[in-house]
Design a protein that fits this description.
The chain is mainly beta. It has one domain: Porin, CATH 2.40.160. About 5% of the residues lie in helices and about 45% in strands. The chain has 2 helices and 28 strands. The strands form 5 sheets. It has an 18-stranded antiparallel β-barrel. It has a two-stranded antiparallel sheet with strand order 2-27. A two-stranded antiparallel ribbon has the order 12-13. The relative contact order is 0.13.
């Protein structure tokens, strides 16, 4: 045993209280609450514990646990969240990360192996719109000199999750083997592997990071459990087969799959289902150029440009697009005023030619522009009301960041106007009723209850914004550093929305024969954070 082994601990306790309404943009007809399954007021908590075992500067190991998010009073019907009376929980503890760090002797090559946080750079929005999450893999970092570094990685976000049903061959017989040539083995060719290279360049007052990534997708990667399908005679059968892309959102692979396919999957030009399934290989590519210029201090200019493409055997499933962002800031003694904007390519009006939106593996990072419309909450408050990422949108905003007139108290005020870049002609293909409010049927005939705008469709977030739709976010964030390790966070946000309800775009939904109402979402979040 190494007597010099040192143990280090880090932790974070968050107590969170939210009060808000209309998180799915709909109201009336007796509906209350923030969103589907949520009250207007909810209390949650989360605990994160991280332990490092350090043998030397060249060797260490890390394990990172998370307990929560636990909703106060909720025991859960299918999973025990541990928030109900008695507080006993079997499913609330999660392993977020577990890895080892080591250096190749006599070199500057650092290697990290295991479940770890991986992310691509963003100098404007803080975290990536392509890939930002915990994932299993290997990362290699090498410092060439004071100005140039190299980072290479291999990530395996999805593998060995396909289990073949024993009755599948009997149901489909020889035809099943002919139409599904990869169905013979459990966990066979169901991997998604990503390989990337990043080259951080750092000079006096200038930082630039070009990067590129390739991902290989196996033909069984997004295969799902039994579903109702049709055999060669057109008869309905309960089979174990490849999932139609329209059902991916209900599968555990949705984070990976949804970012790689068009909205609503494979379609004919008239919008009807082409009945193509994800039973083929796919090649995915991404590239980016991000950076910042601070040589003109107190001015700061930052930019991000990302492009991605996914190619399937069925070209109707292809997806490619780009996203660019620009930020100008001026640092003053009392705060940092700034203006910013972004533009992302959007879908055209042809559902048969794939998607023109940028694909992603998992854009799970915090968005520094918006903590409400997109995923920007630093802790566990309500977020992602418009979408989990910014594909298919554009926006321009202004903010006053870290304004402080009282010691240990900072404020950030933001104003953002945004809209969609997707063709209005695509909206009519999303659901049978040509609306996006409350209960509806999607284009596959599935009933979605209180799902909000297009909720649950693959490759999109809660709201699919067209060029006819827009929104305005107004938010104020306050952070008080009460003690060295204790912060109180208070944020209020209002999102005004203007969506096209003409029959050619979204129309109006009805519930019990009554027209539903579009309502603007808003929320107030109060969080108490202890970290060490």
């Amino acid at each position: 045993m190494n007597s010099t082994l040192a143990f280090k601990a880090k932790g974070e306790w968050v107590m969170n209280f939210d009060y808000g309404q209309n998180g799915v943009f709909t109201g009336g007809n007796g509906r209350t609450g923030y969103g589907s399954g949520q009250d207007e007021f909810e209390a949650l908590q989360r605990v994160r514990l991280q332990f490092d075992a350090v043998a030397s500067e060249a060797l260490s190991a890390n394990v990172f646990f998370e307990i929560g998010n636990q909703t106060w009073g909720s025991g859960g019907q299918t999973t025990n969240s541990g928030g109900a009376l008695g507080s006993d929980s079997q499913n609330a503890i999660e392993l977020r990360r577990a890895y080892i760090d080591w250096m190749v002797p006599q070199t500057d090559l650092q290697i990290r192996m295991g479940i770890q946080g991986m992310a691509f750079p963003s100098f404007t929005m803080k975290e990536s719109m392509v890939f930002e999450d915990d994932v299993a893999g290997i990362t290699l970092n090498y410092k060439v000199n004071d100005n140039v570094s190299l980072t290479a990685l291999w990530a395996r976000p999805w593998n060995d999750n396909f289990t073949r049903a024993g009755a599948a061959r009997e149901i489909g017989g020889a035809n099943a083997m002919r139409t599904n040539p990869f169905s013979s083995s459990t966990n066979y060719m169901d991997n998604v592997d990503a390989f990337a290279l990043l080259v951080p360049l750092s000079f006096d007052g200038v930082k630039v990071t070009p990067w590129a990534m390739y991902a290989a997708v196996g033909p069984n990667a997004f295969r799902t459990e039994a579903f109702t399908g049709r055999n060669e005679k057109g008869e309905t059968k309960n089979e174990w087969d490849y999932d139609n892309v329209g059902n991916i959102a209900g599968n555990a692979s949705s984070k990976v799959a949804a970012g790689m396919v068009p909205v609503n999957g494979s379609r004919h030009k008239d919008g009807s289902d082409a009945s193509k399934r994800l039973n083929s290989y796919a090649d995915a590519w991404w590239a980016g150029l991000t950076g910042e210029v601070t040589v003109l201090d107190p001015f700061r200019i930052a930019w991000d440009f990302n492009y991605g493409s996914v190619r399937w055997d069925d070209s109707r499933l292809n997806r490619q697009g780009w996203l660019a962002s620009l930020l100008f800031e001026y640092k003053l003694d009392w705060g940092i005023p700034g203006i910013f904007g972004w533009y992302a390519s959007g879908d055209d009006s042809n559902p048969a030619n794939g998607s023109e939106r940028m694909p992603s593996i998992d854009p799970n990072g915090n968005n520094d522009y918006s903590s409400f419309s997109f995923n920007g909450q630093p802790w566990i408050g309500r977020e992602g009301v418009l979408s989990t990422n910014m594909t298919g949108t554009w926006g321009i905003g202004a903010r006053l960041k870290n304004v402080s007139f009282v010691e240990d108290l900072k404020h950030t005020l933001r104003l953002i106007y945004m809209g969609g870049t997707n063709s209005p002609g695509m909206a009519k293909y999303f659901n049978g009723k040509r609306d996006n409010w409350g209960d509806y049927e999607d284009a596959l005939g599935n009933h979605v209850a209180n799902g909000g705008p297009n909720s649950g469709l693959p490759g999109m977030g809660p709201l699919y914004m067209t060029t006819q739709d827009s929104a305005l976010e107004i938010g104020l964030t306050n952070v008080y550093q009460m003690y060295e390790n204790f912060q109180i966070y208070l944020e209020g946000t209002y999102l005004a929305t203007w969506l096209d309800h003409s029959k050619g775009v979204w129309g109006r939904s009805t519930l019990n024969g009554k027209s539903d109402q579009e309502r603007d979402p808003w929320n107030i979040n109060l969080s108490f954070v202890y970290s060490f």
